[in-house]
Amino acid sequence: MSAIPSKSPTPPLSLSQLASTLKIMFSQTVEYALRAVVFLAGQPDTPATNEQIARVTKVPGPYLSKVLQSLTRAGIITSHRGVRGGFTLAQPAEKLTILTVVSAVDPIQRIRTCPLGLKSHGVRLCPLHKRMDEALARVEEAFRQTTLAEVLSEPTTSIPLCEFPPRPAASKGSSVPRRRAAKR
Q1: Is the pTM of this model over 0.85?
Q2: What single DSSP character describes residue 37?
């Protein structure tokens, strides 16, 4: 009689694997808001117009206008009027977290009660929904601990919002932030 080989314990999933496994998705509004603030963080103290931000981040202008309004109301960006006006971050990128941006436009919805409405479950989540909520909590915490400055300073050859190497058309009068690729 042969022994059944025992499975070695599966290592815990990383945050990105967990998010991928659970197919956690963020709204298009969150994606667009993050693109806009990352762009603005890459050029501190230099106002950018809606059109400039839309072009570089590849976000439709009318949609971006609504996103920028939400970010302005939340105090994340500041609107400057006039000929040299535009939008800038309201605070340094070192103090602005990903969670702050996400929460301003489409907050992460934690699971507080049974999503199926089962009265017998109430606020005591079943094991499945408890794990799903724990995954959301981990994503929320990762976003709470990540600033825009960290995103921009992370060593990589994939520069946020930039073609690499830059295309000639992007360098003519464009306000695309320039960064050096990481040395390997």
Answers
A1: no
A2: H
